Every structure is written in structure tokens, then in C-alpha cells.
Amino acid sequence: MEPALLRTHPPPAIVRLLKTRPLHALLSDPSTSRAARQLFDAVTRPTAALCGALISSLSKLSLHRYLLGSVLSLHRRGACVPPGCVPLVIKACALSASSCQGRQAHCHALVRGLLGDVFVQTALVDFYAKNGDMNSAVRVFEEMPVKDPIPMNCLITGYSKSGDVENARRLFECMPRRTSASWNSMIACYAHCGDFQEALALFDRMLRDGAKPNAITITTVLSICAKTGDLSTGKRARALIGEDDLDNMIVHTALVEMYVKCRLLTRHGRSSIGCGSGMLWHGAQ
């Protein structure tokens, strides 16, 4: 793209960027994305490829509200969101709690014949579940020809937030294949509802089934052990923590809290956990 095709005149330093790499490449690079967005705003008629690069860049940078504002601006300029970016728009609506725009995106996908796309369907299930509209989430899910674990996990999490443990568990048991995220969602569901015994029973079943717990699993289990004083299960969870997970501040904090709540924060306990953060230890003692 030539600077002459710009409808306004950005600062010279930004225009010089355009001479080094194509605009879509500048948009995709986090180090130049901000300046590239100023160039994009100056383009008279952005192509579908440029629109896609902009939306993908904003999604990767988690600038969800900015993304939605940019989509509205594109529509006003007569540009169209590429089909492959529609799931990213719906995702932005879900993560920014933009219920109205999410429903508009659903209608947009319907008009463009995109509701058969599995990525659009999954994004819609997640959007409705995150917004607490489980009826709409289930309707979209039931229209999916293949019941993938990802939208099923979205539904389980949605049921969990609404306190509907029964439907969450029913869906969990119907899953043909359970990922770590599936187990995490169901364990968190019981923890969220205060049924710690069932949450830990499910954790034991997860281990028996050969599923591999991750940092999210361990953090949830340690939190439950801290609340219930279940030192035995806490120690078993501690044994599953890898060296990489110990560097995770959230896991480390949950581990410290478990030992504190179980009244076992001794010098031996401290040395067995690892050095960690001095601030954490100061607050724990």
C-alpha cells in the first residue's frame, strides 16, 4: 500500500513504517500494532485482508472493546468483517460482556450463512454461557452436528456459574471424551457450589482415569483443601506439582495458603515448598 492511498496524513514517523513492511504485517506485530492501527484508520477503503489483520491483532492483544469499536467503524466505512474473523468478534463480545453486540453478531452470522461453521457455533455457545443465557447456549449447542468437548466445557462452566450442578454433571457424564478442561470445569463447579467432598471425589476419579491435572486443577484442589483442612489430599496434590508449576505464582500462593490453613507452616513445610516470594511468606507468618 502506498502512502498516497491514505485519506488523512498520519505523522511522518508512522508513514515511514509503511515503507518498511506491508500494513497487515505491521498490524500483526505487537511492537508496531499501535502505530499500524493509526495507519489503518487513515486507509480509504481497507481490504478484507487488512480488516482481518486488524481484528486478529486486537484479539491477540486482548483489546476486546477496542476490537468491537473497530468493527462498528468498519461497518460505517462500508468494509466487511472476513468470515474467519466472525468468531473473534463473538469472542470479544463474550469477554467484554457486550450482550447486545453479541446478539447482533449472531444475527450477522445468520444473515451471512455462517451458523454452520463450527468455530462460529463454539464462539456463540461460549458467548451465551458467559452471559448467563443458558437456554440460548443450549439451543446453539444442540444445532451442532458434532458435540466437541470445547463447547461442552463452555456449557459446564455456564451451568456452574448459574449454580445448576445437576445439568453440569449430566453433561459431563455424557461427554465421549474428557479433556483436562472438562475435569477442571466440573471440579470447579462443585467447589463453586460448596460441595467440596464431591469436588475432591471427582479429582480422585480424574487421577484414576489417567487424566493429567494441570496448574488450574492443582490450584482448585489446593484451595478446597485449605478451606476444608484436608492436609492429606493437599499433600497428594503437592506431589503432582512440577517444577514449572512451582514458578506459577497462583499455584505457589494456593500451596502456601493450604499449608497455612492446615496449620502446618513450619520451617520444614517452608523448605519443602520452595523459596517462592518473600512477600508471600511474610504475609503467611
Automatic annotation (TrEMBL):
SUPFAM superfamilies: TPR-like. Keywords: Repeat, Transit peptide. One of its GO terms (molecular function) is RNA binding. One of its GO terms (biological process) is RNA modification. PROSITE patterns: PPR. PPR repeats lie at residues 117-151, 179-213. InterPro entries: PPR_At4g14850-like_plant (IPR046960), PPR_rpt (IPR002885), TPR-like_helical_dom_sf (IPR011990). The keyword Transit peptide applies. NCBIfam families: PPR (TIGR00756). This is Pentatricopeptide repeat-containing protein. The lineage of its organism: Eukaryota, Viridiplantae, Streptophyta, Embryophyta, Tracheophyta.
